[in-house]
């Protein structure tokens, strides 16, 4: 495999937090299917209707309990996802990684080891001003800080992934 681009990136706390916040927001509110969004909306509207159009009843309490449980689960999901993402990047002492872009895949190397990522596994690219998030599925993503990355390398990444086209 011929390498096309090689560059080093540094992960800074502000970029990490901003990217993690945006990625979790997308997971929770953007990437849901229409059916799950309709379910959440329907559950909330049912709970509201039971309270506002009838006297508070046992059924209304059950529905509001389901709404509260769902909200608690979403809050735990956000908290744990954020904590795990920050911890995984904070474990790095130098917070630097080297990206090598080739025709078939890219290699990301840091003090924690190396990983080879096939271009076909990148399902989406979330473009921020200071970072890109290369989504590999529902719960896997690669954070690419943009500082120091050649624009030609970014164009190459976009062209090689199905998400970039």
Instruction: Determine the fraction of residues in helical runs and give it as a percent range.
Output: 40-55%
| Elements, N to C (H/E) | EHHHEEEEEEH
In round numbers, the mean pLDDT is 79
Provide the gyration radius in Å. Answer: 21 Å
CATH class of the largest domain, please?
Answer: Mainly Beta
Number of strands: 7
Biggest sheet, in brief? Answer: 4 strands, antiparallel
Per DSSP, the total helix count is 4
Approximately what portion of the residues adopt beta-strand conformation?
Answer: 15-25%
Low-confidence stretches: none
Give the name of the CATH architecture of the largest domain. Roll
Structural class: alpha+beta
Q: List the domain count as a whole number.
A: 2
The rounded distance between the terminal residues' Cα atoms is 22 Å
CATH topology of the largest domain: PH-domain like
Spatially, the strands of the biggest sheet line up as: 1-2-3-4
Shape: elongated
């Amino acid at each position: 495999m011929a390498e096309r681009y090689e560059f080093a990136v540094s992960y800074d706390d502000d970029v990490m937090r901003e990217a993690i916040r945006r990625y979790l927001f997308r997971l929770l509110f953007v990437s849901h299917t229409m059916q799950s969004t309709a379910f959440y909306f329907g559950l909330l509207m049912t709970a509201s209707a039971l309270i506002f159009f009838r006297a508070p009843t046992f059924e209304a309490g059950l529905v509001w309990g389901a709404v509260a449980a769902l909200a608690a689960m979403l809050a735990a999901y956000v908290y744990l996802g954020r904590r795990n993402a920050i911890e995984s990047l904070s474990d790095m002492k130098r917070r630097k990684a080297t990206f090598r872009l080739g025709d078939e895949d890219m290699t990301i190397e840091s003090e924690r080891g190396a990983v080879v990522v096939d271009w076909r596994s990148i399902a989406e690219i979330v473009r921020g001003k200071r970072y890109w998030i290369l989504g590999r599925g529902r719960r896997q993503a690669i954070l690419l800080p943009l500082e120091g990355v050649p624009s030609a390398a970014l164009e190459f990444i976009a062209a090689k992934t199905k998400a970039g086209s």
